[in-house]
Design brief:
Helix content: 25-40%
Strand content: 35-45%
Order of helices and strands: HEEEEEEHHEEEEEEEEEEEEEE
Radius of gyration: 47 Å
Number of strands: 20
Number of helices: 3
Number of domains: 4
Largest sheet: 8 strands, mixed
């Protein structure tokens, strides 16, 4: 416990407290001044930002434009398909045997019925001659017995037996001839042969493929379309096909048949078309892009697809309107935002069902920075693609 002599006097304690309060007041004042300065700067920055944004919004934006044009529009159904031959088969012998003769080369064009391959006949021809001799004997026996029957020397039962023996002998001849034919491979129809799969002297099991034969002109293409297309699709409609192997070339044909049922898994229906293939460059198994004309040609207002602003609540375009001239005599343009109803697409183009009239000027590029009533400057030095059948380079 301290003595009374060591404790400071009341006046001294008051002076000490004042010394501590003065620095604290100075610190609070400095902090208040700094915070006020920062708040002023923030307010000033916000005001300047608003002014700059307003100035930017009021400045004309550079855009590219196109004129809404009326074009002849053929509605198309798009699909992918696979080519197959009108007639195609993998040829094979019906019985086992040794390859004795090959009468074709890979890739040959052959007529119907041409002999392509023979198996070694062994004793087949000897058996055939034996059976033919037996049939000739049965025929002679029947002839003699008929003469004797006319003289009433034998009964009708003998004649019936001779007739049966002759028929049996001829049937055995026919069976042996069929066995020989089974060892010969012929072209069942005219077409182009594939690559030979056998060699001379090779033992060939029954059913082993010798070569493929394909009839290529015309050629068929199978593809699938959604079931909704059945209302517009009919036999005889025009079809065009393109393949990667021949860029820039289009092959034409017609719809030949439509399947009588819809696939319950995909809800698509199979369609088959016949394609002209006079030079036989299309072969079975090739992949193709298919377009089917599903009705008469109609006039439609079209725009490049880049002109459309797609939104969940509706598709829009910006229509350019002129409002007099500026101080320098140049036209002053603004844009008007419109909802449009879109139709089918074709290449880079889209059909406009409603919302734009023919001849109106529409923004095709640069609309991302626009809003309703924005001022614009038209610069059409670079325009977006607007092709019916675009063919971009394969890079």
């Amino acid at each position: 416990m301290k003595s009374l002599e060591t404790q400071p006097a009341p006046g001294e304690r008051l002076v000490e407290r004042r010394r501590m309060i003065v620095p604290m007041l100075i610190i609070v004042a400095v902090v208040a001044i700094v915070l006020g300065a920062l708040s002023g700067l923030q307010h000033f920055g916000a005001q300047m930002g608003k002014k700059m944004m307003a100035a930017a919004a009021s400045a004309p934006q550079s855009v590219s434009t196109v004129k809404a044009a009326v074009t002849e529009w053929q509605s198309l159904i798009h699909a992918t398909g696979t080519f197959r031959a009108v007639r195609g088969a993998d040829l094979a012998a019906q019985v086992d045997g040794i390859v004795e003769q090959i009468d074709f080369d890979s890739g040959n064009e052959v007529p119907s019925g041409k002999i392509l391959l023979r198996l070694k006949p062994n004793d087949d021809y000897a058996k055939l001659r034996q059976l033919q001799a037996a049939a000739e004997l049965a025929a002679q026996t029947l002839k003699r017995d008929r003469e004797q029957f006319a003289a009433e020397a034998i009964s009708q039962a003998n004649i019936d037996t001779d007739v049966s023996s002759l028929k049996s002998a001829r049937a055995q001849v026919a069976a042996q001839q069929a066995l020989i034919e089974e060892k010969i491979v012929r072209a069942p129809f005219a077409g182009r042969l594939g690559i030979r799969q056998v060699d001379l002297g090779q033992y060939l099991a029954a059913g082993t493929t010798v070569v493929t034969l394909q009839a290529l002109d015309p050629i068929l293409i199978d593809f699938y379309v959604p079931q909704q297309a059945l209302a517009k699709l009919k036999r005889g409609f025009s079809v065009s096909a393109t393949v990667d192997a021949f860029p820039g070339r289009t092959f034409s044909g017609t719809v030949e048949s439509i399947n009588s049922k819809v696939d319950p898994n995909s809800r698509n229906v199979q369609v088959r078309a016949s394609i002209h293939n006079a030079d036989k460059v299309l072969i079975p198994g090739m992949f193709a892009n298919v377009q089917i004309a599903d009705g008469e040609t109609r006039s439609r207002i079209t725009l490049p697809q880049t002109a459309i602003t797609y939104n969940p609540y509706g598709d829009m375009v910006f229509v350019v309107e002129q409002h007099g001239n500026d101080d320098q005599g140049k036209p002053r343009y603004t844009v008007q935002q419109r909802l449009v109803k879109l139709g089918a697409t074709r290449g880079d183009q889209v059909a406009i069902e409603d919302g734009v009239k023919a001849g109106e000027i529409v923004v095709a590029a640069g609309q991302i920075k626009l809003r309703n009533g924005s001022s614009v400057v038209i610069d059409n030095d670079v325009l977006p693609e607007d092709e019916v059948n675009p063919n971009p380079p394969n890079e």
